[in-house]
TrEMBL record:
<dbReference type="GO" id="GO:0006487">
    <property type="term" value="P:protein N-linked glycosylation"/>
</dbReference>
<dbReference type="InterPro" id="IPR004888">
    <property type="entry name" value="Glycoside_hydrolase_63"/>
</dbReference>
<keyword id="KW-0378">Hydrolase</keyword>
<dbReference type="GO" id="GO:0009311">
    <property type="term" value="P:oligosaccharide metabolic process"/>
</dbReference>
<dbReference type="InterPro" id="IPR012341">
    <property type="entry name" value="6hp_glycosidase-like_sf"/>
</dbReference>
<dbReference type="InterPro" id="IPR054491">
    <property type="entry name" value="MGH1-like_GH"/>
</dbReference>
<keyword id="KW-0326">Glycosidase</keyword>
<feature type="domain" description="Mannosylglycerate hydrolase MGH1-like glycoside hydrolase">
    <location>
        <begin position="29"/>
        <end position="415"/>
    </location>
</feature>
<dbReference type="GO" id="GO:0004573">
    <property type="term" value="F:Glc3Man9GlcNAc2 oligosaccharide glucosidase activity"/>
</dbReference>
<dbReference type="InterPro" id="IPR008928">
    <property type="entry name" value="6-hairpin_glycosidase_sf"/>
</dbReference>
<protein>
    <recommendedName>
        <fullName>Mannosylglycerate hydrolase MGH1-like glycoside hydrolase domain-containing protein</fullName>
    </recommendedName>
</protein>
<comment type="similarity">
    <text>Belongs to the glycosyl hydrolase 63 family.</text>
</comment>
<dbReference type="Pfam" id="PF22422">
    <property type="entry name" value="MGH1-like_GH"/>
</dbReference>
């Protein structure tokens, strides 16, 4: 990598490193976030195999006894009120018994197995010397067990998210309908630290935040018990379940490498893919939709999460999904990275968190899926477009898909990590990086 973009990306990852993990950005995000660390490891693997492995090992060092991998691991060196909801909000039930670290009680999408396998493949000699796969594989298996057991709230074979933050697509329009049933707490009862770092027009509204706080507090007060009756918000999310299916395929590869039986992982991947197709795919729309586990109805908002199943090996509706992705709603191949929400929707907002802006991590997932589905040319165009977008806007958290204007935090770690990984990949049509 000789590109100046790569040098800048490396500097960001070095600056955001905190003795074993990487913060998403300085300022608003001073702790370790779960799926951020997975994407960050994908970039770090090109710079330091050991550091990439430590990124994931650090996160899984805070894994709960029930197998869940927490959404946030709080950095004890940071003031407790630097982020809301911080460690004091989650209480003693979220304190890790072995390390004493406090975590969130929520989770985030399971991209970790895919990341761990890619990190291993980048330097198998160092991975073997450090025992990376041998130590992480059983933890990854327990994480997936938790999701497939405790979080199959609807009994459908699909995982439920019980809070919008767990989806990764925090205030996606997909969540508006079930979230509307949640009584918000008053905005006067909490202090939003996010608005001290970016404008209100780029963040969730106070009303939505009040609902997020209500859901998190209720889950905490219930002892983090996972039941459908106790979850006011329970949604079967296509992005989460697609990543779990792809992750099971990655676990099968790890099992083979370690001399274990890969068959159970292949079976679970096939079952998840079947349930995705049966319950969340709409052939008339050529898109996957989230489903409300309480009402059993699809939440018919066209979001990037409905395209992420492209990452599932052997998905039977790849061409149908690509037709939708190339159409007016997402304009894949024309806009890069792909917008988070339907460009034609009346409530599309190009600058507001997950309600329209383009994000580089979901762009990476679709790019990776396109490569796996043997659509190399389209993958190459998406790669080139994402790199051009970063050159234009800088390493921003997200960008306006139409103007390319950057929004959210600057020097964002997963944007830097994605840039490094894309720069290591072939360009479309042999174009220089």
């Amino acid at each position: 990598m000789t590109d100046d973009l790569a040098r800048r990306a490396r500097r960001i990852l070095l600056a955001n490193w905190r003795r074993g993990f990487t913060v998403p950005a300085q300022g608003l995000y001073p702790h370790q976030w779960s799926w951020d660390s997975a994407f960050i490891a994908l970039g770090l693997r090109h710079l330091s195999a050991v550091r990439a492995q430590r990124e994931l090992e650090s996160l899984f060092g805070a894994q709960w006894a029930d197998g869940r991998v927490p959404q946030i691991v709080f950095n004890p060196a940071v003031p407790a009120d630097a982020y809301f909801p911080g460690p004091d909000f989650w209480g003693p039930g979220a304190r890790h018994a072995e390390t004493g670290l406090v975590t969130s009680g929520l989770v985030q999408p399971p991209v970790h197995a895919l990341a761990a396998w890619e990190v291993h493949r980048a330097d198998p000699v160092t991975s073997e010397r450090r025992g990376f796969l041998r130590r992480l594989y059983p933890r990854l298996r327990r994480w997936h067990d938790y999701l497939l057991d405790r979080r199959d709230l609807g009994g459908s074979g699909l995982v439920c998210v019980i809070h919008p933050w767990e989806s990764g697509l925090d205030n996606s329009p997909s969540w508006d309908e079930p979230l509307g049933r949640v009584l918000p707490v008053s905005a006067a009862t909490f202090v939003r630290r996010d608005l001290g770092h970016t404008g209100a027009g780029e963040r969730p509204t106070d009303l939505d935040y009040g609902r997020y706080v209500r859901l998190a507090a209720d889950y905490r007060d219930a002892g983090f018990a996972d039941t459908l009756g106790g979850a006011a918000f329970a949604v079967e999310d296509p992005l989460t379940n697609a990543l779990l299916s792809a992750g099971e395929t990655a676990l099968a590869a790890m099992a083979g490498e370690l001399g274990a039986d890969p068959a159970p992982h292949h079976e679970r991947a096939a079952a998840l893919t079947s349930s995705l197709m049966d319950l969340l795919y709409d052939p008339g729309e050529g898109l996957f939709f989230a489903r409300d586990a309480h009402t059993k109805s699809l939440l018919r908002k066209r979001t990037v999460g409905g395209l992420v199943p492209l990452i599932v090996p052997g998905l039977p509706v790849v061409e149908e999904l690509l037709k939708t992705a190339r159409g007016e709603h997402f304009r894949l191949g024309e806009l890069s990275p792909i917008p988070s929400y339907d460009l034609t929707a009346p409530d599309f907002e190009p600058a507001r968190y997950w309600r329209g802006p383009s994000w580089f991590n979901t762009g990476w997932l679709i790019w990776h899926g396109l490569r796996g589905q043997r659509h190399a040319q389209l993958a190459g165009r998406l790669r080139d477009g994402m790199l051009d977008a970063i050159r234009l806007a800088g390493f921003r958290e997200y960008v306006d898909p139409l103007s390319g204007t950057g929004h959210g935090s600057d020097d964002f770690s997963w944007t830097a990590a994605v840039a490094i990984d894309l720069l290591e990949a072939p360009a479309a049509g042999g174009r220089a990086a």
